[in-house]
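User: Predict the structure for this protein chain, please.
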Amino acid sequence: MTLHEFKALPHRFRWGGVGGDDCTTFCASWISEQVGIDPAERLRGTYRTEEGAHALLDAAGGLVPFMAGHLEPLGFVRADTPADGDVGAIRIPDGHEVGAIRFGPLWLVLTPAGVVGKKSDFIASWRLSR
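Assistant: Here is the predicted structure, written as structure tokens:
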């Protein structure tokens, strides 16, 4: 599946990644489509609210360590220059850090309103080491 095809799917926002995705499980779903491994598999359904998601992120030390801890054991490496399809942590205008997928000059983010492309500086990004 291409990134364009993935973006065009009917994505549904659901905390905890069951029956839809949130911003981090959205990235995990993209990875699962690409490599057949879901980095969020053991987390899906373990939380159902924004507070639950933040508790998991806080326990990991924040979004970047959380993502690194789930991606790097699968062979993902940090990418200093993100390319299409890389996943990353970005900061949105309200100051929150969210998971996103690189798409040209934009980052794709799943919001309650659907998939949105945002111009943003990234905090960290990862790609699969081939």
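The longest helix spans residues 23-35.
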